[in-house]
Amino acid sequence: xxxxxxxxxxxxxxxxxxxxxxxxxxxxxxxxxxxxxxxxxxxxxxxxxxxxxxxxxxxxxxxxxxxxxxxxxxxxxxxxxxxxxxxxxxxxxxxxxxxxxxxxxxxxxxxxxxxxxxxxxxxxxxxxxxxxxxxxxxxxxxxxxxxxxxxxxxxxxxxxxxxxxxxxxxxxxxxxxxxxxxxxxxxxxxxxxxxxxxxxxxxxxxxxxxxxxxxxxxxxxxxxxxxxxxxxxxxxxxxxxxxxxxxxxxxxxxxxxxxxxxxxxxxxxxxxxxxxxxxxxxxxxxxxxxxxxxxxxxxxxxxxxxxxxxxxxxxxxxxxxxxxxxxxxxxxxxxxxxxxxxxxxxxxxxxxxxxxxxxxxxxxxxxxxxxxxxxxxxxxxxxxxxxxxxxxxxxxxxxxxxxxxxxxxxxxxxxxxxxxxxxxxxxxxxxxxxxxxxxxxxxxxxxxxxxxxxxxxxxxxxxxxxxxxxxxxxxxxxxxxxxxxxxxxxxxxxxxxxxxxxxxxxxxxxxxxxx
Amino acid sequence: xxxxxxxxxxxxxxxxxxxxxxxxxxxxxxxxxxxxxxxxxxxxxxxxxxxxxxxxxxxxxxxxxxxxxxxxxxxxxxxxxxxxxxxxxxxxxxxxxxxxxxxxxxxxxxxxxxxxxxxxxxxxxxxxxxxxxxxxxxxxxxxxxxxxxxxxxxxxxxxxxxxxxxxxxxxxxxxxxxxxxxxxxxxxxxxxxxxxxxxxxxxxxxxxxxxxxxxxxxxxxxxxxxxxxxxxxxxxxxxxxxxxxxxxxxxxxxxxxxxxxxxxxxxxxxxxxxxxxxxxxxxxxxxxxxxxxxxxxxxxxxxxxxxxxxxxxxxxx
Lengths: 515, 317
Description:
The complex is a heterodimer.
Chain A: E1 13-24, E2 27-38, E3 42-46, H1 53-60, E4 68-73, E5 76-78, H2 83-88, E6 91-94, H3 106-111, H4 123-136, H5 152-165, E7 170-174, H6 182-197, E8 201-206, H7 209-215, E9 218-223, E10 226-232, H8 238-246, E11 264-274, E12 280-290, E13 294-298, H9 305-313, E14 320-325, E15 328-329, H10 335-341, E16 343-346, H11 361-365, E17 376-377, E18 380-381, H12 383-396, H13 413-426, E19 431-435, H14 443-458, E20 462-466, H15 470-476, E21 479-484, E22 487-493, H16 499-506
Helix pairs in contact in A: 13-14
Chain B: H1 3-32, H2 40-58, H3 61-85, H4 90-110, H5 139-144, H6 148-166, H7 168-178, H8 180-185, H9 190-216, H10 228-238, H11 243-265, H12 275-278, H13 281-294
Helix pairs in contact in B: 1-6, 1-9, 1-10, 1-11, 2-3, 2-4, 2-9, 2-10, 3-4, 3-9, 6-7, 6-11, 10-11, 10-13, 11-13
């Protein structure tokens, strides 16, 4: 085994970064950032999405090379050429999107790339070692399981074990709690603390103030690619951290009124949908959405949310159950019929499913409405309408960074989402399905998206909000459903909902005592 | 069909299948790294002509085989460079390689003041065991009556299987073909792994090509390998990217190629079937096998590397 605690180095400073610059396509992601990480601490890297946290971590982990600046590891000047280099020096990163090979087993993923001498791959020995390591850190895992069979929380455990197996003494966790239930997050924090107590250093990347307060020793705040200050966590008030992070007071739109909802616009009964691997992903879901209300669907990702959204939109034909939009039975109807019946859909995957990355912004904005005037007459497209309508929507929905004739994929995440929502809202739908609409967006864009959802609600649209962000669900929804393993395991009015109650349901605890 | 004809067909199937084993195992190794190399036909032809030439010059068979592998591997390096370093479309690059290799082999066979074309080889691979054990009925000719390259092909398939699933390099290889970004994050050098295995794939294709010109039909002619390179690409799917299955798949196709000759010897009514029709048999078999294998739920278990044919950019955001 190669998992003994790291031996003590010369310096108490595990890592020091000095004056790091890194730009992508001319946009500065890191601008003169300096950062110090002590041995045995949990150090939070706080900042909004797009503040440069991931970039800084990727530089430290050897994935990106800085344009300028210096790096010191245990006081020694260092330049990593690759993640392999960094790992060999004990610096490992757990990316927001896990870097696990889905078709390989847990043990194989843990062994992958390990610099151990020897040629043979001893599956049995590996699996024993992986299981032992998991037990030691309170991360139980089935070493023979293939990654695609695991839940997201379990996959994260594999990522952590991978680094511990290499005996990494600097562990970088990029937004690790984004995919976890509150209870799973607690368990993760215990593990992080245990690793720090062993003398390892943990970088905890987050934009969630509560979690930063809960787990870290020190905080460094990034904003617009710059380091705007560092403090000891114990000395910092949540409000101060928020101001440092955003640069102004942080106010996110919240549902304020409790108007009566109207007639049923979306009725789903006994819906069953298959997942990509042929297993049932949605197993008999029933609910209604009324005009002028927001119904939130909570759940850890991978519990059937995606398939539910696809089933509602006709992108996957349900195997059983019925879907009504108003009075129309659209269960087996085409995607186009869903659209004409009044369904709009903002998918989780903005680029690729939602938008056509290579087309221009104007073309993307017209991608649903082009079949009718003013965009076309008969089979002929009218370019002038694309331009004028496009200009109007870009103005109205505040889509920034649009350059005429260039593909939409060059826009930032927030502006992509604004464009996507503009297109869907312009269809004047009866039902609007939003799937993780603010994931990965900065505060400004999140504000705009939330406002848009509330505006649609006020206009009498029935909004179905599928999200993993509990704060967002609690802030916007009139009613909440919890999806677990393809079933609705709980529903409640917003007044009765708390993060704790939702978290327990999301983890599969049933309120009626059964499991 | 009587018993001796069945045995004869099977022995012939082994011969015809052997070059397919080399090429298919080579392509499996290449594709396991996530690189699709459709240039197998070109690499085999280059192997066939350079191997033939080297033996023609020296009379040394082993030297011919080594030269064939080196030259075909060098050709595959072109594909490795375009698809790994330049990240061009792998299908286009592979097809270009196939056409280029075919043309070059044909040219080399006719070049110089003393062209190779029409010449018999100065040496050829012969069965290593004669008499005794090889004369045992049925088992003898099937297992012991072959030339050394047949046994080498079994060894190559077995070694490739062990390499893929029981060694650390094999694990890195599979990971690179499934998910290069994850492999890289785990410390695997993606480009290096891809380069090495494209070159190994090329060398094995060259070995397959040399089998034609130094064992199967040891004379240089313009089109010595038929469509073996294309069939090998189909066999990769039939073998579901597993080297051992490639052996059986290759023999199945060897038998399909042989069957037309067998039918000729059976007399009426079998010999009335036009031979041009029978020549299509392997290809029809290939199409049917693909449809059966890739339809419905079986496709999931097929095991195509998830990143096959997709260029990898490290700093892509």
